[in-house]
Amino acid sequence: MQMPTVHECTATSCAYNNDHTCHALAITVGQRTDARCDTFTTAASHGGDPSATGHVGACTMSDCRHNVDLECQAPGIRVGVQPTEVVDCLTYAPA
């Protein structure tokens, strides 16, 4: 199984974000109530591998139509900031 790519991330304050591209090797998505990007973090400098594009390593949103056995099956995802200032997987879709 291949991990889905993070096609775009608009959470520009994230340390892994550089020019709307996620550079964390793998992110984790999901909390009990929302599809939050659990890897989101702020820092004084950029993190991750600048030559890599982020992937979804795990997703705990078992009620998402793209989720099979807590693994994302979407071809790719988008991550962004919701109006509530929460950084979520925007590809999340209830089953």
Describe this structure as you would to a colleague.
The chain has 95 residues and is an all-beta fold. The chain has no helices and nine strands. It has a three-stranded mixed sheet with strand order 1-8-9, with no helix packed on it. The protein has a two-stranded antiparallel sheet with strand order 2-3. The protein is globular, with a radius of gyration of 12 Å. The mean pLDDT is 94.
Query: End-to-end span in angstroms?
Result: 21 Å
Query: Helix/strand-derived class?
Result: mainly beta
The overall pLDDT, averaged over residues, is: 94
Domain tally: 1
Encode the helix/strand succession as letters.
Answer: EEEEEEEEE
**How large is the radius of gyration?**
12 Å
Keywords:
single chain; 95 residues; mainly beta; 3-stranded mixed β-sheet; two-stranded antiparallel ribbon; 31% strand
Compile the SSE list and pairings.
Elements: E1 5-9, E2 17-18, E3 21-22, E4 27-29, E5 56-59, E6 67-68, E7 71-72, E8 76-81, E9 87-89
Parallel strand pairs: 1-8, 4-5
Antiparallel strand pairs: 2-3, 6-7, 8-9
